[in-house]
Amino acid sequence: MPLTDTLPKLLLRGLLAGLIAGLLAGGVAFLLGEPHVDAAIAIEEAGSAAAEHDEGAATTEHHHDGAATAPHSHEATEPEGHSHGDDALVSRTGQKFGLFLATSLAGIALGAIFATVIFYLRRFIPLAGIPLSMVLAGAGWVAIEAVPFFKYPANPPAVGDPDTINDRTLLWLGAVVLGLFAVVAAGYVATHLHSKLVTVRIAAPLVTFLVIVGLGYVLMPSVNEVPDDFPATLLWEFRISSITVQATLWTALGLAFAFLTERSTRTTADSPTPVGAAS
């Protein structure tokens, strides 16, 4: 893309590309992800109902035995876990329609960041236009999605201890930082190997990336809170759909931004020269 493109112009392009990408990602999430979420919620609610039934049966047995026990409070008998049924703050139908709003807003925000990075990055690397958009989209997906995913993959409802959610969130953010650092380091190495053999220019950044990510994976703690009785097929399908949604978001963002850039460039080139402009 030409260096004459201003930041506001690129931001507008990024916002539109992000909106398109967010809507597409929402559609993929609705078609591929939501059925697995529903299945996981059914498992979670079945487990909560079973736990509540067992607790109620135990309490009744104590009363029948004449044990002098203090009555349980309502909070104590409430089953653990999230409410996804009729008592939920937002119904599942509302959550499904809200999915598109969430992915659209995420896409818009990501598009603004994407455009800002391109505005500054185009001054330091030899790529421009469509190649720059696609390379940045691919690098963003690897850094922000792929690196964290393969260390801390997404889990459906009914998986994960609520007491460790803050720790798991911090670990995931640490994995994002690791991915960004690895991608930036690999890009730095790649920009300083112009005079080297092609094989060296390909291998050196790749080795840099793999070494940094590998060391990070070894140093960061592992997390495995999947119950032994959770269906392995459902877990696998949920994780595949999750990474597919993110791949859709980043691919669509790169393609939409590249398309809008190409369209803007052609429109500018095809614009007639004002009379008297050339003398």
Tell me which oligomeric state these chains represent. single chain
Distance between the termini: 28 Å
Q: How many strands, what sense, and barrel or not for the largest sheet?
A: none
Count of DSSP helices? 7
SSE topology string? HHHHHHH
Secondary-structure-based class equals mainly alpha
Keywords:
mainly alpha; 279 residues; globular
Would you summarize the structure shown here?
The chain is built from seven helices and no strands. It has 279 residues and is mainly α. Helix 1 packs antiparallel against helix 3, helix 1 runs antiparallel to helix 7 (232-270) and helix 4 (129-151) packs antiparallel against helix 5.
Fold topology:
Elements lengths: L6 H58 L9 H4 L14 H30 L7 H23 L13 H27 L6 H22 L12 H39 L9
Structure description:
- The protein has helices at residues 7-64, 74-77, 92-121, 129-151, 165-191, 198-219, 232-270.
- It is mainly α and 279 residues long.
- It has a domain at 7-71 and 84-159 and 226-270.
- Helix 1 (7-64) packs antiparallel against helix 3, helix 1 runs antiparallel to helix 7 (232-270) and helix 4 (129-151) packs antiparallel against helix 7.
- Mean pLDDT is 80; it is low at 66-86.
